[in-house]
Amino acid sequence: MNDDLLFIDDDEEDVVEDLGTWKILIVDDEPEVHAITKLALNDFFLNGKTLEFISAYSGDEAKRCFREHDDIAVVLLDVVMESDDAGLLVAEYVRNELDNHFTRIILRTGQPGQAPEKDVIINYDINDYKSKTELTAQKLFTVIIAALRSYRDIIVIEESRAGLEKIIDASVDLFSSSSLEKFMQGIIQQLASILGCSKDAAYITTAVAATPDASPNPTNALDLNELYVFAGNGEYSDKEGVLLKDAVSPEEYELCKRAMRDREIVYAEDHVVAYCNSKTQNGALLYLSGLPRRIGENDKHLVRRFSNSVQLAFDNVLKTIDVESTQREIIERLGKAMEHDGQGSNHIARMSAMAEVMGCGIGMNENDVRLLKHAIPLHDVGNSRVPVTILRKTEPLTEDEIFAIRQHAEFGYQILKDSSRPTIQLAATLARQHHERWDGKGYPEGLQGQAILLQSRIATLLDVFDALINTRPYKTAWPLDKVEKVINEEKGRHFDPLLVDYLLNHIEKFMAIQHQHPDIPEYV
Amino acid sequence: MNDDLLFIDDDEEDVVEDLGTWKILIVDDEPEVHAITKLALNDFFLNGKTLEFISAYSGDEAKRCFREHDDIAVVLLDVVMESDDAGLLVAEYVRNELDNHFTRIILRTGQPGQAPEKDVIINYDINDYKSKTELTAQKLFTVIIAALRSYRDIIVIEESRAGLEKIIDASVDLFSSSSLEKFMQGIIQQLASILGCSKDAAYITTAVAATPDASPNPTNALDLNELYVFAGNGEYSDKEGVLLKDAVSPEEYELCKRAMRDREIVYAEDHVVAYCNSKTQNGALLYLSGLPRRIGENDKHLVRRFSNSVQLAFDNVLKTIDVESTQREIIERLGKAMEHDGQGSNHIARMSAMAEVMGCGIGMNENDVRLLKHAIPLHDVGNSRVPVTILRKTEPLTEDEIFAIRQHAEFGYQILKDSSRPTIQLAATLARQHHERWDGKGYPEGLQGQAILLQSRIATLLDVFDALINTRPYKTAWPLDKVEKVINEEKGRHFDPLLVDYLLNHIEKFMAIQHQHPDIPEYV
User: For the modification 4-aspartylphosphate, which residues carry it (chains A, B) (predicted)?
Assistant: First the structure.
């Protein structure tokens, strides 16, 4: 046995890297044991980390060490010290009081035959026990290697657990930027731990700032100034939002440049920088540090997988957000055009917001409120088939013109009817019924009271309220007290009395919406 | 030391559960060693699993056992058998030939002083070595416990890795049902392994079949007949799509009922059934089996997290899909109404599909094609401000009427202009330019050649082609040869010559779209 071999690491190379230390706590009341142990384990390292020794000479001192260090990898624990079971009390304290299930415990007993009870081994999760006569360098080496590997694996599992928790949390709402961040944090945390890297990892992208609707700019493909840390773990968790060049060292920055330029995965020294493929952006980077020198094919496969997929996921989420916003704007523009309200009108925005307040206020469930909010902007699309000249007429209407205007309810229904989508079904009904009256004197069907859908009654009331309080082509804006008076007079006649009560009792909420979305002067 | 204590498990209870076995391979050329080992470890169990012994009496036999079993947890490996290093050759074979890095290897040597070289311990990832004189029950117990725990942790990490790979893969396209499945598989695989459960786990839901737009039906909240296995791991990976009641035993089905009814997490015997909270559905279930009897607070926390979040994530994805489809249908209905095309016309659908074919065909990039496809349906929204009587007129138009019709290009532009969204910006340009001509004789601006946006030139050509090949209020459908002749005559006059070439050279692609989206007879 050659003691020089003590510092062989997993990679069969004897270069010590500076990837930190494994903390080893030596607990023994004989100072000599400390000295021998340190001597035997001098120059030891595993996975690029050396050992850092902490010494305690009694059970109490050992407990203090555990309180002060939450990252002790292995404790070599004497059993008999200030009392016959002082060591066992330390083990119990670590597992049950401190709830530390990570540190590997190796018991050392004075007498070879003095084995601990099996239930001690089981319950305190003791990794091994040795008699002090087994304190040879070789034995110690073997037991520490095995214990550190166990410790390392337990930490990987804990990191995986923490990462999984983030992924689960984030999955609730991937369409918010903060959730995307958490999702990425969870994935890189798991990735780093499973690859055996340090915790210090980052995902670097431009994606969130840019809109995926825009084409990537090929002439600008290498502008690293647009890259910043989107999600970070370990050292990089404080650097989210920081520009890449300010987050890493100049040498690392060069690696990033290279990965970006060559669109490849760069394995270098103890870290990896992986270019992440993007369809619409200029790509992103995965940065992992503390990479074990010998990275396996399995691990490389996982990095490739990440590199191929993750930015595409990102792109997709951004695209989805963008598609939804674009569609919403189109609907709003077409809706306005079809109402012939003029582009400066905010009638639709106010109707949506007021419907939400009233729906919640009268106790509709969340889903019904959502449906109403999205259906109500469409109530007047039938106006598109009524000549604008009639809609904008300021003089009294002829009977033919009144007939033509009343047609808009049926036209709207025709445009929207027979859909399988609940929002559009509701919109069709609102279009048809929003000129019905509580007393049955409305049109087109003369429905009465609860024969009119609740949502339609809401639309009717809010539509009239909004028309009265604002300027229309045929009238000026009325003062609030006059509006309240008229609405109140129509309670039980034009309008559902309960809805009138809610409106008038919470008028400040509705006026707040009026002030948030005023009409703007026509620019045409 | 009391041998009765040998079968104490982690839970301080001495009931053996039937959760399977740990496979232990004993390799030794002395039959007596096999007998003593089995005797010493008789009645041992850990985490509810007993030991299953496999015996090999030579190195060659040991290698065969490893080829036949890929789930050997621990091998007790004699070093000197048919040769002095037969055992070491087995270790080398396992790690390097079979690429098995999971099985824990414990070397046993005949002589106490005969320690293996340290590089052997490192390179073959040897967990421990013992002299045969250390074959006491107590020593064996300790070393097997430690080795099994290591093995268990390594397997957890492997499962986490596999789960992470699924999560990464699935994240690319969460809006497809198959990706959602894979995402869930990845999460439950990680969850099961981290909790120390067996691989057999399932996520059970109704969500995908139903549409989230619909309100949950409270009277129907307990209809378990609608629940089926959505994503499964282990035993349940073959049961995806199977009804819950056909996938589990009657006892387990009762547990599921209880969890669903009480909307809670049920911990029972060796499995857990967790109700998963949903806003819009009736909830879902997480089913994990092979649960360790003593489940920690950390683990319960993770299950609660899953239970609170995951179905909401599901709901959100479904809602997003639904919102997008609903918005698309609204845009289509309003677009048709504004074109005054009649609800039976499929002009818009054909224009979108043809624009995609032509965009790809002439080499536009993917993003530009997508924009064009979504913008082109809006090119005629300006028609909404042109009297229908004029649009539908079958007799020749007066000059005033021609002027009125030509206004629709500018009207459309007014409706769509000044948006920050690229799709709408493009649509505004298409609305304004789709009656310009290659020779400059079009309207409203009389632009010529490449001064007209490429996308507008595409819209112009496809719009005319579609009008010619189909029936319109003012004309019957023309036969293809007549259409081709006219289009060809207008090459370089009305139309961009290159686009005409593409259309006529690939006419079968465009006719296929015509056949896929025919106009349907008006129902009004």
Answer: 78
